[in-house]
Amino acid sequence: MRYDTFVRAIYIQYEASFNREYAAALGLIVMALSAFLVLIKTQIHQRFLFKASGKNHRPSKKVDLGVWRWPVSIIAYGIPILALGLPIVVTGYWLVLGLSSEENLKFPISAVTGSFSVAAAGALVAGALGLIVAYISLHHHKKLITRAMENVIHIQYGLPSIAVALAFVFFTIRFAYPLYQTFSLLILAYSIRFLPHTTGASKTALAHIHPRVYDGAKSLGASRSRIFRTITWPLAKAGILGGMTMTFLNIVKELPLTLVLSPVGFETLATNMWGSMEEAFYARAAVPALIIILLSGLSITWVIPKTAREGNSQRSESNVEY
Question: Rounded distance, CA 235 to CA 228, Å?
């Protein structure tokens, strides 16, 4: 619709101009805005930080909305139904039109394989990095370098993906050219891009483990590795796996990073759908689109109940008094 935003302007300058400095300048503006918003978020978080504990936890109270419960219910249920139903209906309509016109529709095997391989690798790397960052953040939160690290992670997440991709392009071309358009660079970019997902999930999961649980294990002579295997991982795995699953889904549907940084000839569901849309083959685009929707729905259906169930179990176990 030719509606100008920072993302569109940066992409157009990158694709249509030999002078990439203007695109970089727009990226710096977005970075400054992101830094400002992260600063506000940090101030609010420090002022209204809620420290939950087993004894101080107060059960939530039910509020009778009266006649307002009907419009509130319509909004609460209507938004997710519309958000999920509209893409399914539109892509299903495209697919039916393609099948009725006997268009040659093929299952994108290479795109599915490519998406699953890079998404799995990126989720694993981001999960490991997120767990390390979360541990450092919880145990060294008073240090200035720790707070700066967290702010930088959130600032880069506030940037458009195209700006992050261009930053990796400029860096690798100038300082690490052998990494340019390699799988290693693509997975690294995914991991850094979606690090806030795994960091936040891991930090929340670790924060619910009562410190006395660790004290009791240490008093019995347990090593750090054994504490992680027998205490940390069983109690925090729901949150950690939830963050990794969200990272997996985001990588599957990520387009700008994949278009700019992926090796030549590499294909994912997102790039396959993008290419079909660019050539106005909407029925072909419907196939990878429906796969992404189905994958997202199945993953969320599996993660949310599991996370809630194990989260409740974790809170009850971590509040044990020693």
Answer: 10
